[in-house]
């Protein structure tokens, strides 16, 4: 699809405007959204993605439209694994609940910027070297294998990766929150607050996720515009999805299996495409419509199997402990309800959450500005390592 520069410009301007408007709303009235509010906003962003896809289908043809919908669904489903890490991050950094929206929004904006760079680089490489699809396919198959076998190891705590440890060494920090401020001056020194650290951690963590999610969309289409917009619409709805589904993720016991099957299918598709592009062998290509059907069936079966497993487990004693206190739960606030969400997520935490983990520790406290938000003197120190 030949996309004119002005179309790229308009797309980027609209995305920036949406994020800026969202930021103004969050900044003016910091709060923890209810499930109803989160559901409304998730519906809005899903609706925008559908409208965009229909518009693309109408203006550019069924092929690009189908590519967008397939890529968007792949990215959105893989974003569920990001939510596990968000829960672990917020628990480890003891982020005040009313400021989590702001942290997520800025972190997602950083993620979109990083992914834009990755997509531009990936598109340039794909255009010149078709053999790179062998590498993309191998990455996805390896990721699928680690999800199935758990070779990465399940993570019940957040651990700094190498980049985050470098940030800590280079930035003088304070262990106390000062509202939503990212920097504060103490004793004449400019210090980074834990809010800045958690935003950086969100962005860096998404970089690791992008290493397999972006090749997955390139397995659907090599059009950089479609890859970018599919990523953008998936990321924009992620903040509200965190508050809506955070505490329920632990019940998706077959999420890793479903994601592994999706990645394995796309990885195989990429390898077939690479063979077709680099050899004269009559290698069949998997059409996009079939990819969409296969992915939807896998995700549907995963969801149904998880629901059935959760209901069967519900007949046992203590089965609901930690699952009912969602990240977007209307009842309770402060870190007391965090523990429920964290434990609920831990039980089904994806192995991708633990990639590139290292050591690091930190216990953060709410400052005077956070006292009214946490019902006391701020969130208590994190039980996990930041």
Automatic annotation (TrEMBL):
Where mainly found? membrane
- Quote the biased-composition stretches of kind Gly residues, using this chain's numbering: 315-337
Q: Where is the composition biased (Low complexity)?
A: 338-356
Using the UniProt annotation, give all residue ranges assigned to the region (Disordered).
Answer: 312-386
Q: Which GO terms describe its cellular component?
A: membrane
Show the InterPro entries listed in the entry: Integral_membrane_TerC, Integral_membrane_TerC_rswitch
Transmembrane feature ranges: 6-27, 39-60, 72-91, 103-123, 129-148, 190-210, 225-245, 252-274, 286-310
Localization annotation: Membrane
Cross-referenced Pfam families? TerC
Q: How does it sit in the membrane?
A: Multi-pass membrane protein
The entry's family comment says:
Belongs to the TerC family.
Q: Which PANTHER family did the record assign?
A: MEMBRANE BOUND PREDICTED REDOX MODULATOR, THYLAKOID MEMBRANE PROTEIN TERC, CHLOROPLASTIC
Protein name as annotated: Tellurite resistance protein TerC
